[in-house]
């Protein structure tokens, strides 16, 4: 089994390449709890898959920019800093920094929270 640092690096490489389905298959637990800022959680990997598919269908300029800036890993927790730049069909042009905090168990993400400005 890979250590958490190696798993985080491999996951982030898939995200940077927009290979979300592969990332979900390899690194996300079926019981995932995923939070967008302070919103109630999406429960389960299938909900995360659906949300990502809906988001990507609404991004007008494919591929969008997902640039990894920094990563911290300690114990079974990772924090990845991303720069996202895209145009959404409903929201318009978006460019923001996002921090994704993930808790890992048995090689899978079990809890994830995305932090970013909403205005």
Provide key terms for this protein:
119 residues, Nuclear Transport Factor 2, Chain: A, 6-stranded mixed beta sheet, globular, NTF2-like_dom_sf, SnoaL_5
Q: What can be said about this structure in brief?
A:
This is SnoaL-like domain-containing protein. The protein has 119 residues and is α+β, with helices and mostly antiparallel strands.
Characterization of this structure:
With 119 residues, the protein is α+β, with helices and mostly antiparallel strands. The protein has a single domain, classed as Nuclear Transport Factor 2, Chain: A, CATH 3.10.450. Helix content is 29%, strand content 47%. The protein contains 3 helices and 6 strands. It has a 6-stranded mixed beta sheet. Helix 1 packs antiparallel against helix 2. The N and C termini lie far apart (41 Å). The mean pLDDT is 91.
């Amino acid at each position: 089994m890979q250590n958490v640092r190696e798993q985080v690096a491999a996951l982030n490489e898939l995200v940077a390449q927009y290979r979300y389905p592969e990332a979900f298959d390899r690194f996300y637990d079926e019981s995932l709890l995923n939070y967008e800022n302070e919103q109630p959680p999406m429960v389960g990997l299938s909900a995360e898959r659906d949300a990502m598919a809906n988001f990507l269908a609404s991004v007008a300029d494919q591929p969008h920019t997902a640039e990894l800036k920094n990563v911290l890993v300690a114990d079974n927790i990772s924090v990845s800093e991303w720069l996202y730049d895209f145009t959404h069909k409903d929201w318009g042009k978006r460019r923001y920094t996002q921090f994704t905090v993930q808790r890992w168990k048995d090689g899978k993400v079990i809890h994830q929270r995305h932090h970013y400005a909403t205005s």
